[in-house]
Specification:
Blueprint (H helix, E strand, L loop, with lengths): L1 H14 L4 H15 L5 H13 L4 H40 L9 H25 L3 H16 L3 H19 L16 H25 L2 H14 L5 H12 L7 H12 L8 H40 L3 H30 L3 H15 L5 H14 L8
Helix pairs in contact: 1-4, 2-4, 2-5, 3-4, 3-13, 4-12, 5-13, 5-14, 5-15, 6-7, 6-13, 7-13, 8-9, 8-12, 9-10, 9-12, 14-15
Length: 390
């Protein structure tokens, strides 16, 4: 079972382009549709839980699936398989391509346009399932509007809580399909230990860093804190990381932006940007430390939450709250589709044409994602030489 988890997660880690929204779509296709490791309702509830928790939501969903399948070790293997391919690629970028202006390369821009198509297709599919009526569509639209106008981590947390309240008021008395029982192979004692460890590291690492002035502890503190205070996925963590590594002189602004461009070019979670930064700061061991530190809060929280989630999700109030949260997730994803995904990729008429064609190939013609990636890369390299619309 562990080998199967590792093989499937590694396959996803090698092919999951497009950011957190697209990852949820890939997970749904591989884990739910093809392998039927859990039902649709359980997967939607797991996604909703991960929206409540800080950290990279798509990576937490992958960890959660691994934990539910084979315990804590299954979660570790699922995380390693999904994360290692992009970590290795970004460490290579850091060690071999430092100083090159890779952030403006045409093939990277093409991958950004691929992300637009993949995310748009994912939002369209999730919207049909999670916002089928006026109330839920309204929650999604209001969430999208406020997320775009007030793009802060705090506003996103407040919106999720308000959506949960709205869902409880609107849907708690409706007959919802019974939630299937989750068999969580983690004890409550282990869960409580993980939750205490999460809080202890969050407050303890800054104190240790201040008293010891150890550079390795400083790296662990910066990346652990960044991973602990971010809701909504990888793009949200970028400004936090920039404030942690650029002003103190660990990395230049130019190298930071080049690494961000490289991160867009690889599959897997955007949080693996930490591997690039760690490699730039302290070489390979710096990459290992930064990667573990930024993902550790997410792992501790998902292990700590799952044993208590089974009971909560089966109550009428929680079912209504989850309906509201799922609708809010659609709104947050719509906002993310526009900014930063659309705004960083669709800059010209040619970009929009390529994005529209890729969306059609993916959604209507059902072409596989790897073909879309190849066409997007080629299109991104050709676009700079075109004069259409100029």
């Amino acid at each position: 079972m562990l080998l199967e988890i590792g093989a499937v997660a590694t396959k996803l880690g090698l092919t999951s382009f497009g950011g957190p929204v697209a990852h949820l779509l890939y997970f749904h296709d591989e884990y739910i549709k093809k392998r039927k490791w859990m039902d649709e309702r359980t997967y939607a509830d797991l996604v909703a839980l991960c929206q409540f928790l800080p950290g990279p939501s798509s990576s937490q969903v992958g960890m959660g699936i691994g934990i539910l399948r084979a315990g804590i070790l299954g979660g570790v293997i699922a995380w390693l398989g999904f994360t290692l391919p992009s970590v290795i690629a970004l460490v290579v970028f850091a060690l071999l391509l430092k100083g090159f202006d890779i952030g403006n390369a045409g093939w990277i821009h093409g991958l950004k346009i691929v992300a637009v198509a993949i995310v748009a297709q994912g939002v369209f599919s999730m919207g049909k399932n999670l916002t089928p009526d006026r109330n839920r569509a309204s929650i999604a639209i209001i969430t999208m509007v406020i997320t775009l106008l007030l793009p802060t981590a705090l506003s996103q947390v407040i919106l999720i809580l308000l959506a949960a309240l709205a869902g409880t008021l609107l849907y708690r008395k409706k007959d919802a399909p019974a939630a299937s029982a989750l068999v969580v192979p983690v004890s409550r004692r282990a869960a409580i230990v993980c939750l205490f460890l999460f809080v202890g590291l969050l407050f303890g690492l800054p104190l240790l860093t201040q008293f010891t002035n150890n550079p390795w502890l400083a790296i662990a503190d910066s990346f652990y804190r960044s991973g602990s205070l971010v809701f909504g996925g990888g793009h949200v963590v970028l400004p936090l990381l920039e404030r942690e590594v650029v002003p103190v002189g660990w990395i230049s602004q130019q190298d930071f932006l080049a690494g961000y461009g490289a991160t867009q070019a690889v599959p897997g979670p955007l949080f693996t940007f930490a591997a690039y930064l760690g490699a730039m700061i302290k070489g390979v061991w710096g990459a290992v430390l930064a990667t573990i530190a930024i993902f550790l809060p997410s792992f501790l929280l998902i292990v700590g939450a799952l044993p208590f989630w089974n009971r909560l999700r089966r109550s009428n109030a929680m079912q209504g709250a989850l309906v509201g949260v799922n609708a809010a997730v659609v709104g947050i994803l719509l906002a993310a589709l526009y900014n930063p995904i659309w705004t960083s990729a669709v800059l010209t008429v040619e970009d929009f044409v390529l994005a529209a064609l890729l969306f059609g190939m993916l959604h209507f013609w059902k072409w596989p994602a790897w073909v879309i990636v190849i066409i997007g890369v080629i299109g991104g390299m050709i676009i700079p030489y075109m004069n259409i619309g100029m």
